[in-house]
Amino acid sequence: MSDSVETRGDERNDLVVKDANNDGRPDLWVVDTDGDGKPDVFQFDTDGDGKVDITIVDRTQDGQPDEVIDGDGGMPPRT
């Protein structure tokens, strides 16, 4: 886990949870944190261990990352 990242809100609404490499575990999470139904956090498991390795935050929801950090940004996915 890493330090907490600033997002648009305090909620975690998983819009997409995907197993992109077909190993049976999620490795992509697309998250809405303010309840507007639009994603503002994108998380990736790049090494297949089931934990978030990279978190991208788009606070302005304009498709341009505002912050890219190593780790889950204090927002681990629900298991």
From TrEMBL:
Highest taxon above the source species: Bacteria
Biased composition (Basic and acidic residues): 1-26
InterPro entries: TSP_type-3_rpt
Species whose genome carries this gene: Planosporangium mesophilum
UniProt-annotated stretches for the region Disordered: 1-36
A single MF term (Gene Ontology): calcium ion binding
Protein name as annotated: Uncharacterized protein
